[in-house]
Amino acid sequence: MPRLAANLTMMYNEHAFLDRFAAAAKDGFKGVEFLFPYEFPAADIRARLDEHGLTQALFNAPPGDWAAGERGIASLPGREDEFRASVEKGLEYAAVLGNQKLHVMAGLIAPEQSREQHRAVYLKNLEFAAKAAQSAGIGVVIEPINTRDIPGFFLNRQDDAQSICDEVGAPNLQVQFDLYHCQIVEGDLAVKLKRDMKRPNAGIGHIQVAGVPERHEPDIGEVNYPYLFDLIDSLGYDGWIGCEYRPRAGTSEGLGWAKPYLQNT
């Protein structure tokens, strides 16, 4: 039975951010994730988690200047010091919030920039991030993202992400498998889940879902999520599955698809 975590960046936007924890718990969620916590003191978020019996599943390290359009800095040449500081900041929050996974976003690459140079920087930065996180008992995840949602994003394919993890060789570095992004870029979701779930190195450290193509509820669109949830269970995955989608209308009103899973977690 999948363990669903509400993504509080995309879901429950009917409420102020700190009030979304109560709304998610009321609907039956036991876990939450979000993009970034840094506008709020970690202690304030932890208080909401404790008050409502929620587990923090995941959040992202600082991504650079998000408001200016940056989408991560892990692969950006010349930003290594800033990346290291972002990892340290993320780990400080994780120590308070209790999550065991930290996502670091790769960043954007322009057509005229060297992919080889970006990849070399990425590998070095991930080596640093994994080593820093390992001492805290935290895993680092990297996520392939489709270039329709984020044009120019450096990392797009599951096999490339797995190869990068293999090259770094850190036991706590894994891939964040977002089924929405993978369906848009590659498809063949079941085969890729079977291929990567049991890899001796790297593997899948976190899963996210959304309907394709509009990124609404998972019961809307071209992907058969009940089949994939059964497959994920059969493969022995016991981590969280983040619901990173934009509700078509009200968040709670659109949770009919999730009720069988929320009632059994």
From TrEMBL:
Tell me which family the UniProt entry assigns to this protein: Belongs to the hyi family.
User: Which UniProt keywords are given for this protein, alphabetically ordered?
Assistant: Isomerase
Pfam families found in the cross-reference section: AP_endonuc_2
One GO molecular-function annotation for this sequence? Answer: hydroxypyruvate isomerase activity
Identify the catalytic residues.
Answer: E143, E244
Transmembrane annotation, as ranges:
none
Q: Which residues form the Xylose isomerase-like TIM barrel domain?
A: 21-260
Q: What is this protein called?
A: Hydroxypyruvate isomerase
Entries under SUPFAM superfamilies matching the protein: Xylose isomerase-like
Q: Which GO terms describe its biological process?
A: glyoxylate metabolic process
